Amino acid sequence: MNRIGVILFAVLCCLAITGNDAYARQAAEADSLERSLQNPQPDTVRIRALNRLAFLLRNSQIEKARTYAEAAYKLAQSASYKLGMAESLGFLGLIYYRLGMHDQAIDRHLQSLKLFEELKDNRQIAFRYNDIANIYVTQGYYDRALEYHNKSLILKQKINDREGVATSLKNIANMYLAQKKYTESLEYCLKALPIADSLGDQRLRGHILQFLGEIYLAQRDYKRAIDYLQTSYNIKAAINEQFTLSRLLNSIGNAYLNQNDIPRALKYYQDALTLAKKTGVKLEEQISYGNISNAYRLLNDYKKAYDYHVLFMNMKDSIFNETSREKITMLETRFQSEKKQAEIDRLNMESTLQQQEIAQQNQRFYFIVGLVAILAVFGVVMVRANNQRRLTNLLLQKQKQEIEIVYKELELKNNDITASINYAKRIQSAIIPSEERLRSFFPESFVMLKPRDIVSGDFYFLEKVVATDGREKIVLAAADCTGHGVPGALMSMVGNDLLSQIVNERQITHPDLILNQLHQNLRRVLKIEDSDSRDGMDIAICTFDMETRQLEYAGAMSPLYLARNGEITKVNPDKKPIGGRMAGYSGAFTRCTFDIEGETMLYLASDGYQDQFGGIHNKKFMSKNFRQLLQDIHMLPIYQQQQKVESVLAHWMSFGPQKQTDDILLIGVRLKG
Asked: pLDDT value at position 281?
């Protein structure tokens, strides 16, 4: 071993001893805190102990850490202890992020950020900026991520937090790495590394060496990549930093795979999968499945490659957009799958009945055997009956075996159909704008979309365009297509594409003109003139002028609710739907214009909420009660409004075994003049 190797080996040994000692101290502290919780304590002391336990266990026992953080938050909330609430929300955001629950993670981080801003705690504010940025990196929103990273870096520099500055530089390097901007990523790594060395922070040094290794891996310098990645792994393993070890193992595996050392790469991938499952890192578990599938494919083991690819697809968080034709084809496949499912259900019922018949035949057989024993005088007759019964039973047993074979085949097909259904659902979810996109235009807004049958006939449309007059306008629409389930979803796909063509390509922004064009195009696409089809949709469209602060509305069978100054107004739509066959259709819709002065809440909704059956008398919720509900909630904060409409609906449906009647869509947006 050369001199440098000896020195590196000695350093790693020291790290291992130090890391194990630190881990032992943390374990001892956690045991002590858990014992202290068994004794009566003031609320603030108990909250600090629970939050400390969440911090100590976040890398090794993530579910236990989550339990402690949730308990700390509930107790802090009941005690109105703002600092305890802010800290526990921050831990919950980190834990949900590691569990792959990014929507809940960012919600907790934003609540924590608000509380720390009220407490004027700049250090914790910088931490929250950093955590929010990391979530945006994972989701691929790099511009938003860089904005938050820079805010965090500036604040850390202001308060002279050198460790925090190095952490921000490291995180920006990771973001550029995710974007494949290797020159920028390397630049930030080399800025962060000297700070980590001067602080003696091995955890931070391990992260930076990991990113350096991944940069060299991307640049095909595999020897240098493995050196950096293995050194980073040794440092993190020594200090028990388990959360990122699975990512390191996957990266090392990629280095060996690119050198065609597939067996060694496969071992690293499998170790990464084991560790990802143990630590609850869902993203790395998904990546491990994909890597293992690829390795088996290269080894020509296509059965295992397929099995791991299925696991990879089932865990995939996001889906790339496809062409409209491919999306509609997938939904059509889903429609045919539903027909097959009905046939499977029928065969399952027949199988159940035949199994019951077999059981009954067995009962009769035993009864006859007993009767023969008791009534020996009829022995000869009963022997004949017994022989006949045995023949019948053998035939039934054979039928049972055949049914079991068919049942297993049907079960496999059913699993395939279920996977297809879920895939169709993910495609539709990718097409409909996300709540994050809605909030990027309207920060105070919410969406409640509840399909009745997995995929939805209700959908909403959102686009920001520059109109022909040169002003920026936001077009928001809420639509209720004919039917629900797959037929409704197919119609929603057609409607979404037509709206996109009208608004984006033709730059039509006035809502009445959009409805006129949508009506004509939908009738043409569905060939309504040549058929008896009544397919169509009810829709409300609002256009918001960013410069004049004016709101335009037009509706086809779907109203607009406006709430201002404590009063709610229902703006009635035209009594004619889009598409379908309508006698005396004039070809024109009514446009209403409103000046936005002060705070205004607007609500767009399908009729699913008000038509839902429930309550003690099993009646519809009705539009009168729906309007009163909006009246009651419109002054509340947005997140409380969303919680209220969902809890009222759940309570309404809780009286008896109520099923959802129709797809439900409700959008709430707060506008400020």
From this structure: 80
Instruction: Convert 504-570 into a string of H (helix), E (strand) and C (coil).
Output: HHCCCCCHHHHHHHHHHHHHHHHCHHHCCCCCEEEEEEEEEECCCCEEEEEEEECCEEEEECCEEEE
Q: Give one DSSP letter per residue of 614-654, joined into a string.
A: ETTTTEE--HHHHHHHHHHHTTS-HHHHHHHHHHHHHHHHT
At residue 296, the pLDDT reads 94
The residue type found at 73 is Y
Q: Is the pLDDT of residue 64 over 80?
A: yes
Entry pTM: 0.44
CA distance 47 to 652: 36
pLDDT number for residue 417:
63
Report the alpha-carbon distance of residue 646 to residue 618 in Å, rounded: 18
- For residue 376, the 8-state DSSP code is G
Domain 140-225 sits in which CATH superfamily? Answer: Tetratricopeptide repeat domain (1.25.40.10)
Q: How far is CA 509 from the centre of its chain?
A: 32
Per-residue pLDDT at 616 exceeds 80 = yes
Task: Give percent above pLDDT 70 in the chain.
Answer: 84
- 276-282: long-range contacts, CB 8 A cutoff, minimum separation 24: 276/246, 278/242, 279/59, 279/60, 279/62, 279/98, 279/242, 279/243, 279/245, 279/246, 280/62, 280/63, 280/98, 280/99, 281/98, 281/100, 281/243, 281/246, 281/247, 282/98, 282/99, 282/100, 282/315
At residue 14, does pLDDT exceed 80?
A: no
Provide mean pLDDT across the span 455-476: 92
Provide the token pair at 57.
């266990």
- Which are the contacts of 672, defined by CB distance < 8 A and separation ≥ 6? 596, 598, 599, 600
Q: Show me where the domains of the chain are located.
A: 140-225, 324-430, 433-672
SS3 content of the chain, % helix, strand, coil (to 5): 65, 10, 20
Q: Tell which phi-psi region holds residue 604, choosing left (phi > 0), alpha (psi between -120 and 50) or beta.
A: beta
| Element housing 461 (H / E) | strand 458-466
- The domain 433-672 having CATH identifier 3.60.40.10: the answer here is yes
For residues 132, 133, 137 and 142, what is the CA-based torsion angle, rounded to 10 degrees?
130
Around Cβ 672, how many Cβ atoms within 10 Å? 12
